[in-house]
Amino acid sequence: MIFDKFFKKIDPDGALAVLKTDIHSHLIPQVDDGAFAYDTSIDCISRMAKLGYSKICLTSHFQTYGFKNDEDDILRRAEELRQTIAENNIQMELIVGGEYLVDSGFRKRMETNRFLKMNDQYLLIEFSFNQAILGISELVFELQKLGHDIILAHPERYLYFHEHPEIPKTLKDQGVFFQSNINSFGGFYGKRTLKESYKYINNGWTDFLGTDIHNRLYLHALVNTCKDKKFRKMLDTHSFLNNTI
Q1: CATH dotted code for 14-234
Q2: 3-class DSSP state for residue 111?
Q3: Which helix (H) or strand (E) holds 17?
C-alpha cells in the first residue's frame, strides 16, 4: 500500500548482533528470581539468538540473606544448562559470572575473595535500589586492589543516584564500568529510569548493555525495545564493550 513505507514495522531480529554478548542474565533455573524451569530458559535463549546474541553470561544472584548461592553449585548448574540447549540444537555460548549484592555480608565475602567473574576479569556488582551505601568509594578501591575490574549493574535504576549524580560521577572517576539494562530504554522500569538511561548514554558513562533477563515477561519487553526507533538509533551511534567479552 502507498502508506506502508511510513508505517513499516521495525524487525527486531539481529538488532543485538552488534553487542554479541549479553553480560547480565538470570537463566539458570531455580537459583534466584529468574527462570523457574528449563523450558523458560530454552525459550529465552532461543529467542535471544534470533535477536543477534552469540554469547550469554549467566549472572545468578549472590546475596547474604536472599539468594545464598554457592559458586560451585552455579558452575554445575550452568553446565547442565549448556547440555540442555545443545540437546535442543540452540547455538549459544554460555559463560558464567555472578551478580553480587553489596549488602551487610559482602565484606566477609571479600575476605575469601571468591567470586565468579566474566572471563576471570569483570566482577558484576549491584547496590540496594533505595538506600545509599556508606563508603562506596572505599569499597570499590578495596575491590580493585584485590584485582577486580568492577561493573556496576543498572545504575540508572538506583533512586538515590537520580538525586545525587555526584555518586555515579565519583564511581566513574574511579574506573567503575557501568552496565545499563536494555529494557530501561524501553520504559520497562518506568519513565524516570528511561530518562536516566539516556542521560547516562549522553554523559558517556555507559560501557555495557545487558538484558537482565529473568523470564518470558522480560523477553517480551526486550523484543519490544529492539523495535524502538530511538533505541536502535542509539545502538547505531554508540559503541559498547560487550563484544570484548
Answers
A1: 3.20.20.140
A2: helix
A3: none
Q: Where are the alpha helices (DSSP H) in the chain?
A: 38-51, 71-87, 106-112, 136-145, 159-163, 166-173, 191-203, 216-225, 229-237
- Residue 243: what are its φ and ψ, rounded to 5°? -75, 5
pLDDT in tens, the chain (245 residues): 444 454 468 999 999 999 999 999 999 999 999 999 999 999 999 999 999 999 999 999 999 998 999 999 999 999 999 999 999 999 999 999 999 999 999 999 999 999 999 999 999 999 999 888 889 999 999 999 999 999 999 999 999 999 999 999 999 999 999 999 999 999 999 999 999 999 999 999 999 999 999 999 999 999 999 999 999 999 999 999 999 99
| C-alpha span between 214 and 203 (Å, rounded) | 28
Backbone angles phi, psi at 124, to 5 degrees: -90, 120
Question: Residue ranges of the alpha helices (H) in 130-227?
Answer: 136-145, 159-163, 166-173, 191-203, 216-225
Q: Residue 93 is which amino acid?
A: E
Let me know: does 121 contact 95? Beta carbons within 8 Å. no
Domain-wise residue ranges, the chain: 14-234
76 φ, ψ to 5°? -65, -45
How far apart CA 223 and CA 47 sit, in angstroms, is 9
Alpha-carbon distance of 99 to 33, in angstroms, equals 12
With b for 16 or more beta-carbon neighbours within 10 A and e for fewer, the 108-132 pattern comes to ebbeeeebbbbeeebbbbbbeeeee
